Amino acid sequence: MTWSEIGPLLWTGVQETAYMVGAAAVFTALGGVLVGVLLVLTDRGGLLPLRPVNALLGLVVNVGRSLPFIILLVAIIPFTRALVGTTIGTEAAIVPLTVGAIPFYARIVETALREVDRDVIAAARAMGASRTQIVRKVLLREARPGLVAGFTITVVALVGYSAMAGVVGGGGLGDLAIRYGYQRFENEVMIATVVVLVVFVQLVQMLGDLVARRLSHK
């Protein structure tokens, strides 16, 4: 293939990958923060100690983190089909990407929240702050640098996951590498795909590091 043919394919792959990763990142941020906050609140000594709930959440998160993504991708095919009506394409790929990333980010959120100074939380409680206010104005606010740094790591992982989604026709750069680079032995396509993925990851990491540094100085 010539570069004039590879260019449009790469551009389409970049758009599809950006769409998959972007949508999955939004859902992962929402789900991961929610689960991470619940893990902290329901733990022993938390603001809402519920050990059975905490144990169940911890089990679900651990199971989700232990499954290799390629296995998860296949295992939840019925769920994906029920949710979006298909198991191929970018929309279908968003489902396993989100399901695989939420447990990963939830643990990062939990760790970041646990690093918040307990004295600050105690002071907020002494001043009569509600649980919701403590979560929003103390825990999440104080943990912002760690949350952003962890989210950056998660998005980078999502880029890698999205490439694996190409194995089952998920679209994006991974699908391009499989169909042209591997199955048709087009080495130029494979090399170009790898370069674009590396640049993609580098840009995400640089942006995440920049935001985390600015938040840590506030």
From TrEMBL:
It holds the Pfam family BPD_transp_1. Keywords: Cell membrane, Membrane, Transmembrane, Transmembrane helix, Transport. The keyword Transmembrane applies. Residues 14-208 form the ABC transmembrane type-1 domain. The chain crosses the membrane at residues 20-41, 53-77, 83-106, 146-169, 189-212. Signal peptide: none annotated. It is found in: Cell membrane. It is a multi-pass membrane protein. Belongs to the binding-protein-dependent transport system permease family. This is ABC transporter permease.
